[in-house]
Amino acid sequence: MFLHPIEWPNKARCAASITFDIDADSLIRDAKRNDAELRLQPISMGQYGPTVAVPRILDTYKRFGLTQSFFMPAWVMENYPDTVESILKAGHEIGHHSWRHEDPMNHSDEVEAELFERAMDTHIRMTGRAPRGYRAPVYSITPAMVTRLIENEFIYDSSMMADDLPYLIKTDAGTLMEMPPHWGTDDWPPFAHFAEIGYMMPVRGPSEGITPFFEELEAMYEAGGFWMPVLHPFLTGRLARWAEMEKRIEKVLERGDIWFAPLEEIAIYARNYTGGIRHVTIDS
Q1: What domains can you pick out in the chain, each with its CATH number?
Q2: What gap in Å lies between CA 209 and CA 189, rounded to an integer?
Q3: Cys-Cys crosslink for 28: which of 35, 42, 64, 279, Cβ 3.0 to 4.6 Å?
């Protein structure tokens, strides 16, 4: 079923990482720079993520013995240091997710480079090391950013969608693992209702919105693939939705043959996989 199948460690049927993008109120502050402070509804909606939802998610991960990956804009890290501390204390990974969730399509690469470096400084100062993984805002990664990640010795990106499985990006600058997301396992389509930034999705009920994620898991389980939901605490971390996620995760864990790990760990394994993985060349 896969052109370049990967055999996972300990005969696991598939690899999995439940990832969260903790954007908080960076979204509205970047989208409405002139009057964001007046927009208390979207600000408070974003604040719900790091202050209410993330503790709930971390509690579930602790009870289930899971170590997973979070992505945070550095502006969010600086404004929610307790959230950073709690994620790191629990042993989870924090990946680079821009400075303040700026879409690189809206400014020059010179500006993007400055924002990238500013965010790198924050990661190193607050986590004690440079991040190893990157996810672009709105998945808007550019060739220049790929080169930048390689030059900064990142292990992986998680923004491109050329395969179901992890694959290797090759450029003139070097190589980078890609951990591919997809909108089918992203909670923005079923749950985002954010008029101020142009998203007016028909909000689904908890089970209706979450069921497709686990239908994707079943397909990956049967084929020996890679399952990676891309979730947002202020969306899926709300009480009823997370309760539904928690029930389904618990049932999945009962199988005992799915390898749950942070993306960094899965990326390293895939890169070193002796059976070979897909290579995709990008002009840099």
Answers
A1: 9-281 (3.20.20.370)
A2: 9
A3: 42
